Amino acid sequence: MDENKPHILIVDGMALLFRSFFATAHSGQFFRNAFDVPTNGVQGFARHTMSAISIFQPTHLAVCWDMGAKTFRNELFSDYKAHRPAPAPELVPQFDMAREVSEMLGWKSYGIPNMEADDVIGSLVETWKDEAKLTIVSGDKDLLQLLKPNVLIALTKKGFTQYDEYNELRFIEEYGITPAQFIDLKAFTGDASDGYPGVKGIGPKTALKLIQQYGSVDGVLAAKEKLTAGIQKKLATDEELLMISKELATIHCEITLDDPLDQLLIPEFTQARAQLMEQQGYSLIAKQGLAAFPF
Question: Which helix (H) or strand (E) holds 155?
C-alpha cells in the first residue's frame, strides 16, 4: 500500500452492532440508559470502531449500514435470509441509535434503501480504490471478493483488537483462486447463513477444483461434457439455482457515492463530544474516546 495515499477505514456498522449486542446480551448486560433503553450494541459498535481507528490509523472513515430487512435480493430469491429470527426486542431500538451516535461523533455514514451494507462497502471500494488505501473491518467473509492491491480486509476475531487480516496475495495463496472468483465458489456451495443453496451435492472442495480448472460458473457450464456423470447430473438439476446463487453472492459495486473525500475525514474526539456521549447515556463511549484520543 502507498503510504502517501489517504487511508480510508470502512466499517461494517451492522456487523459490529450485532457482534457487540450478542457479546453481552447472553449474560443480560444491556447497559440500559436513563429511559431504560438498552445501549450495549450501540456502545460496543462505537468502541470497536474507535479501537479500529487506533489500530489501523486511518485518515478517513466511512460507516456502512443496512437500511431495512428487505433488499433486491429478497425479490430475486424469496428464501434469502428468510430463516433468520427477528431481532431481539432489546436490539431493535439500537439500529437507529447506532446511526445517531455515528452522526454525533462526526463519522460519515452510508446506507442505501434496497441495498445491503456489503453493496455500499463494495461501491466505496470501487469509488476510492485508485486514490486511497482501504481497510475494511467486518466479520463477513463475503467481502473477500472485494480484495484488490490497495485493499485490506480485517475480519473480527476476539474482542475489539484481534483481527484475521487478508490482503489480495494471502487470499490467492490460501484459496488458489482470485478474489473475484470467490463469487463463483459461493455460487456452487451456497451460503447457509444467507439461506441460498447453490448446487446440492457440490461441496467446497469440489467447487474449488471446478473453479480452478474452468475459471468461473460459465466456464464450468461450458465444459459440462468434460465433467463426471455425477457432477453433470447435479448441474442439470440445480443449474437455475446455481445462477441465482451467483447473483445473490455478487456484491454490487456500482452505486454512485460521489461525496468529496474531505467529508470522510475523522474528526477529533473532543471534550465536548465526550460530554455529549455522557449526556446521552453512553458513558462507555466517552471513556473509550478519552482513553484512545487523549487531549
Answer: strand 151-156
What pLDDT does residue 295 have? Answer: 53
Question: Do residue 270 and residue 163 come from a single domain?
Answer: yes
pLDDT at residue number 292? 83
* Cβ atoms of 5 and 133 closer than 8 Å: yes
Q: In whole angstroms, give the CA distance from residue 127 to residue 93.
A: 32
**Residue positions counted in the chain:** 295
This prediction has a pTM of 0.96
Which pLDDT score, from 0 to 100, does residue 293 have?
Answer: 79
Angle between helix axes 13-25 and 94-104 (nearest 10 degrees) is 120
Q: How far apart are CA 165 and CA 145, in angstroms?
A: 14
Cβ-count burial 261-284 (b if 16+ within 10 Å, e if not):
eeebebeebeeebbebbeebbbbb
Given this model, what pLDDT does residue 132 score? 98
> What pLDDT, on a 0 to 100 scale, did the predictor assign at position 69?
83
Same domain, 83 and 214: no
CATH code, domain carrying 180: 1.10.150.20
Question: Residue 103: which domain range?
Answer: 7-174+253-292
- What residues contact residue 126 under an 8 Å CB cut-off, 6+ apart? 253, 254
Residues 191 and 54 in one domain: no
CA dihedral for 222, 228, 230, 233, sign (positive or negative): positive
**Low-confidence residues in the chain, pLDDT < 50:** none
36: number of Cβ within 10 Å? 7
- Which contiguous run of DSSP H or E holds residue 72? helix 72-76
Per the structure, how many domains does the chain have?
2
